[in-house]
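Quick start: read one record
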Amino acid sequence: MTETLTPENADQVGEVLAWAAGEEIPLEIAGAATKRGLGRPLLGAHGGEGNRIIGHSLDLSGLSGITLYEPEELVLTAGAGTSLAEIEAAVAEKGQQLAFEPMHMALLYGHEGGTLGGAIACNLAGPRRINAGAARDHVLGVQGMSGRGEAFKSGGRVVKNVTGYDLSKLMSGSYGTLAALTEITIKVLPAPEKIRTLLVLGLDDDAAARAMTAALNSSHEVSGAAHLPGPVAGQSAVSYVGGAGGAVTALRIEGFSPSVAARLEALRDLLASFGTLEELHSANSIKLWREVRDAAPFQTGDQPLWRLSATPSAGPAVVRDIAAALPGVAFYDWGGGLIWYRLDGPSDDGGADVVRTVLANHGGGHATLVRADDAVRARVPVFQPQDKGLAALSARVKDSFDPRRILNPGRMYQGV
């Protein structure tokens, strides 16, 4: 029968993995297990054909707690099972933040929570990605166990200690298919003294793309650029956005008070010709960007949901062409380079053929089916299909870390 294995320390994780490798028993690697709906279904953890149970779940939530936090050095180390909420609260007390603004993706699947290990393994980053980088850019070091049950570590506690192969970046975005992370060291940064958001009201998608591009190409250090079409903006809990009566384009400015005031005024002048402007102060700014970060408009319902990476200037055309075949609702983040698209209803393939064909027709990009029922996710590629060269490289990396294919088998790609 399926069991949940709950090691209490890294050594026990290694023992479990060595045993599973020897017996060739597949394992679901989980922290809070809030993102089971992301990726291909793990038959090894939840049963297969004829209800034959063929695997177990390795619960890493016992590897929790902040083991080192030096605010003066801007560094924090914690167990992989430590909740994001605990870490965010700890650094906030010291006037600091996780600058990569990790998305709380569990909310898309009807859960709350999430762990540091899950955020790094899925390489989750929010609206500040455009100038602060991805989650992997904030990892200083990791410790973990390979699919053989062998311990490894990479990096250190300061950037200058990162030498040799940067396994930290390899683990980021591997979705638990290469190793079970046990401890992670990240850099933290001071939280901004002031946050302001400039709203441009009533723009269509094309005009919004031009406005965001102008803002991001300026010297005003915009740290967030999102466009919410009318149906999406209307769902916001921020009154200025939800009550705008149409589309809202949001541009965030952060930093020291005098600098924010000056840059915001300059941004107003730059964008005055685009339309009516409004301004959000700190509390409402924080609320709005959390909604954008966590794709709040799409947290209810179970319709297929896509996360698309595209050329920002091509974003509006991508959305129009997808909507012509698959009606749905979209909004834009990362200055238009990130598109969230929710279908209005079910589709046999979750819309995969249409979405990826349209994306290819507009210069390419990546499309991830973030939410769909198990049958659809088992049938179609959830992540962007790899070309032959990249697939071969991925297979060789998998062979090095997990030759028995026991770690989250098939979660990203069939047979890997």
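The chain has three domains: 1-191, 194-293, 301-379.
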